[in-house]
Structure to design on (392 residues):
């Protein structure tokens, strides 16, 4: 059996021991005589799986009592609509646009009300987190951010000061990579396929007073997206993604066994630092995000030309290093170093870059700049064009 060095942005590497456990339980889940894929979502066995997944996640993130935890389908994308449908009571919300995912969330929200861009880094090709306003209009229904922009590779260290306005965050690609102060948010959500499990579920964590009255746009909100109903039904309004929730539960336990989120944070920075340090001294490769805003998970970089980028991706594949091609919106390369990516895989990637650089010495043009360089021009689609958006 040969496992590759998988730097996929999502769906992404899962811990090998979790995969082995799933394999061992595939034909007979703990004496049930069937797999988790074959059992009723109303069964006691499945309810225990859900309850255990939620309890483990609550321990990991230290989720306050007054927050509800939901496992919903539709990925992170469905919550682009779920957030305004549930929270846009006066139909006015503020959006920080720091990459394509927050931009898409903003565009979706505009279908429901006045979604106001309160900060954006689009002018600099999302090479940074934009500066936040000192204060926000206290009549806004919420302020929305995407903590870690998976495609561009920038990540927020702190958040806008919103005072009484609830802060909403898409944390998909840094979910469980590091601690998160859930109590600072009104609502956070994450598609789990980046760091927590297989595709097909989003975890939504919401403060209960925000959903107590039902959805803001009750007349048009689909029942499935009514977070009060989902909370009342324990995410079992309809058949949930049983398999994804089961695997997530195992990953949550695995993270706990690794020492929890502080330990994950340390090991993740240790891993990506290997790459960032290499990029900072390289004459061929350059990082595409301003140093202070670099992601803990998605390391974006490029060489001096798309052709050379292609040859690097091929050279990497020959060494079993896969899924390092950048998102097609930005080109270049992206190495997603989520929790389950081993330090050895990252070291192998750095070695591969060094070897590639040695054999291509002199390929960097005079004007190649390092950290903070503008990413390659968009060649197809745009950050707003769904056709141009691939997974991750
Ligand atoms: C991947 C991703 C999404 C989209 O997730 P889906 O589950 O495919 O809808 C949204 N936001 C961020 C930050 C992501 O990384």
């Amino acid at each position: 059996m040969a496992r590759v060095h998988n730097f996929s942005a999502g769906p992404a590497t899962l811990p090998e021991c979790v995969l082995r456990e799933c394999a061992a339980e595939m034909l007979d889940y703990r004496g049930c005589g069937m797999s988790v894929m074959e059992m009723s979502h109303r069964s006691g066995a499945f309810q225990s799986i859900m309850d255990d997944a939620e309890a483990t996640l609550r321990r990991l993130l230290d989720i306050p009592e007054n927050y509800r935890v939901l496992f919903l389908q539709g990925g992170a994308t469905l919550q682009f609509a779920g957030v305004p449908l549930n929270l846009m009571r006066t139909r006015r919300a503020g959006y920080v646009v720091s990459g394509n995912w927050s931009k898409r969330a903003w565009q979706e929200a505009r279908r429901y009300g006045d979604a106001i861009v309160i900060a954006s880094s689009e002018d600099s090709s999302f090479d940074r987190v934009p500066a936040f306003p000192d204060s926000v209009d206290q009549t806004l229904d919420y302020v929305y951010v995407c903590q870690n922009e998976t495609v561009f590779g920038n990540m927020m260290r702190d958040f806008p000061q919103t005072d009484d306005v609830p802060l909403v965050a898409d944390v998909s690609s840094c979910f469980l990579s590091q601690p998160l102060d859930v109590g600072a948010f009104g609502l956070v959500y994450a598609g789990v396929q980046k760091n927590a499990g297989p595709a097909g579920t989003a975890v939504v964590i919401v403060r209960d007073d925000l959903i107590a009255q039902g959805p803001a746009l009750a007349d048009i909100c689909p029942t499935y997206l009514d977070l009060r109903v989902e909370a009342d039904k324990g995410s079992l309004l309809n058949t949930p993604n049983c398999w994804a929730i089961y695997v997530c539960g195992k990953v949550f336990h695995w993270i706990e066994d690794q020492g929890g989120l502080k330990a994950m944070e340390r090991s993740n920075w240790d891993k990506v630092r290997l790459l960032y340090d290499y990029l900072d001294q390289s004459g061929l490769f350059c990082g595409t995000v301003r140093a202070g805003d670099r992601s803990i998970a998605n390391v974006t970089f490029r060489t001096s030309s798309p052709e050379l980028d292609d040859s690097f991706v091929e050279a990497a594949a020959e060494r079993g290093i896969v899924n390092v091609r950048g998102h097609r919106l930005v080109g270049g390369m992206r190495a997603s170093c989520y929790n389950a990516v081993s330090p050895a895989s990252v070291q192998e990637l750095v070695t591969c870059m060094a070897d590639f650089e040695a054999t291509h010495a002199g390929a960097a043009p005079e004007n190649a700049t390092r950290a903070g360089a503008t990413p390659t021009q968009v060649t197809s689609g745009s950050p707003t064009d769904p056709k141009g958006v691939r997974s991750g």
Summary: The chain has two domains: 16-258, 260-359.
